[in-house]
Amino acid sequence: MKPAAFDYVAPRTLPETLEALADTERDVRVLAGGQSLILEMHLHRIRPDLVVDINGVAGLDRLSLDDGTVTVGALVRHGFFDSPQAVPGPLGRLCSLAAGNIAHPPIRARGTMAGSLAWAHPASEWCGVALALDAAVEVRSAGGTREIAARDYFRGPLRTARARDELITSVRLPLLSDDTGVGFVEHRRTHFCFAQVAVAAALTMRDGVIEEARIGLVNCADRPVRAHAAEQALVGVEPGSTGTGLRLPDGHPFARAGRIAAEQDAAPLPEPYADLEYRRNAIAVLVGRTLRQALADHREHNGATGEHP
Amino acid sequence: MKIILTVNGERHALDVEPRRVLADVLREDCRLTGTHLGCEQGVCGSCTVLVDGEAVRACLMLAVQCDGRSVRTVEGLSAPDGEPHPLQRAFSAEHALQCGFCTAGFLMVAVGALEADPTIADDPERMDGLVESNLCRCTGYEPIRRAIMRAAAEYASHARL
């Protein structure tokens, strides 16, 4: 199908954009990358009255670093994060791993991180990363600016704490310390499919012991989920060797954390080709794999400290 | 809404509805039917064109978003005298097409990548990402990969000259 008719404005400044969004009588949608919005308009699942194209708004395409925080402007595309050097340290590696799972290069050339958070699809890679890292979403309306913590932001499938007249101007992510290892693993049928399950993890290590664990679960509930119980089970653990086979040894702390995440943190919904048992198993396996990847990433970037043969 | 599109170097002054996507305007208003529409959901990549040098899905971009910008389609690949582009020659030599429906999209995604960075052919992982970008139901992708590598080698030898 073709999109239904709508009005279109392409403001050049933020005040003009916010003025257009203030029209809450009508269905007003922000067009940034458009890789979900225009698709949904093709399918007539969204029929906006007004589309506000923010691509010409000055200043939204910047990424800035200050005080241990990366501020990602609303027009920074997925493809920007393809290179692990785009952002310093382990955060850059995590963003690069996550971005590589988002569709294909031509889609990544258009779609944006802020747009993914605005859309808030349960299978969105960025939403899982944002939740795992305690990101903040900066929204602005004609009435002012506020910052929403990721843990308060996601309200359900495609539902967020953003009000209709608010524009996401940036997403703030904390830089990760050098003693942090990161992992991102996704399971899906083909590269273009949405994630059946994906996991983002960051492990901060001291002397071979896990000091802090952060785990974000993608498509493991009706919204992105932080695996608090699994994280707790990892603190103070010395992961040692993860074995050589594809499977983690059953008694390994990462395998245990995976089972805890699947049983206690996730709230998966059955899908036609993935019933609950399958999904819980997939979550447990993927959490284990992601933790293993994060540990390997830590060891690769911090010499062999903490390695136990 | 009145827009100016520069397509393959030619200026088009058009009056289009905002709801029309770039691919439809290229095909129907500019009469450039080399750009094909397959899934119209951004998956298949048949409609891939370059906008300001960057490969994008022309089904997921509104024509009004391209006002004042420069678009390159498959019709803009060959030289003015009709001499095929190195990629087109490579696709022919490697049998990288059969029915041809996906070919324009593959050519454009490849030309965008090679012009941005010809060394992509040396990196198997990035080549995977590139070849996976679009769907082809005839060739099994290997001939397409070989064709892109072949054209990349030609780009590299030109760069040395």
Automatic annotation (TrEMBL), chain A:
Keyword Cytoplasm (UniProt): no
Swiss-Prot/TrEMBL keywords: FAD, Flavoprotein, Oxidoreductase
Coiled coil: none
InterPro entries (UniProt xref): CO_DH_flav_C, CO_DH_flav_C_dom_sf, Diverse_Substr_Oxidored, FAD-bd_PCMH, FAD-bd_PCMH-like_sf, FAD-bd_PCMH_sub1, FAD-bd_PCMH_sub2, Mopterin_DH_FAD-bd
Domain FAD-binding PCMH-type as annotated: residue spans: 1-178
Source superkingdom: Bacteria
Record protein name field: Xanthine dehydrogenase family protein subunit M
Biological source species: Nonomuraea antimicrobica
Lineage: Bacteria, Bacillati, Actinomycetota, Actinomycetes, Streptosporangiales
UniProtKB/TrEMBL annotation, chain B:
Keyword Transferase in annotation: no
InterPro entries: 2Fe-2S-bd (IPR002888), 2Fe-2S-bd_dom_sf (IPR036884), 2Fe-2S_ferredoxin-like_sf (IPR036010), 2Fe-2S_ferredoxin-type (IPR001041), 2Fe2S_fd_BS (IPR006058), Beta-grasp_dom_sf (IPR012675), Diverse_Oxidoreductases (IPR051452)
Protein name: (2Fe-2S)-binding protein
Pfam families the record matches: Fer2 (PF00111), Fer2_2 (PF01799)
Ranges of residues in domain 2Fe-2S ferredoxin-type: 1-77
Key words of the record: 2Fe-2S, Iron, Iron-sulfur, Metal-binding, Oxidoreductase
